[in-house]
Write a structure and sequence with these properties.
about 150 residues; 3 strands; mainly alpha; single chain; globular; 7 helices
């Protein structure tokens, strides 16, 4: 690492190196389509923040079932195909068992893909943005926007 590398990037580098040393764990960095296609399950052990929650949607879009925490699933109430738990032991068990059950994996992958198509389609997103823009434009009469 360069001497002037921001501390957060140094911490992430150490975190990745430590996890990469665990037998059977491969830290791949940016996940591309080929890696999703090779995966049998995605995990989202997210406890705070929000940026990486999009990875839940991304995994389901690629047809990969997802085991996640309630925080990761928080904004996705319509996604009933998610395997959600905050209990560390159950989370680990589900991460270990789901790859072994091809039928359940296929059912969850199919259901998740269909839920994404039903609730997160580009047309639905466009309608949501249009509604938001109409709401914002009506605020221009508010004294705060003069």
């Amino acid at each position: 690492m360069a001497r002037n590398t921001p501390r957060c990037f140094m911490w992430r580098s150490v975190w990745v190196e430590r996890r990469s040393a665990i037998p059977g764990v491969e830290m791949v960095g940016i996940v591309d389509k080929a890696e999703y296609r090779a995966a049998c399950v995605a995990i989202a052990p997210i406890r705070r923040g929000g940026v990486t929650k999009i990875k839940v949607i991304e995994a389901l879009t690629m047809g990969v079932p997802c085991v996640c925490t309630s925080h990761a699933a928080n904004d996705f109430d319509v996604l009933t195909s998610l395997t959600v738990t905050d209990d560390a032991v159950l989370f680990g068990e589900r991460c270990m068992n789901l790859p072994m059950d091809a039928a359940q994996r296929a059912d969850l992958a199919r259901a998740g893909f269909n839920e994404i198509a039903d609730h997160f389609a580009p047309d639905d997103f466009a309608r949501g943005v249009e509604g938001l823009l109409h709401s914002i434009s009506s605020l221009q009469t508010c004294p705060l926007f003069r």
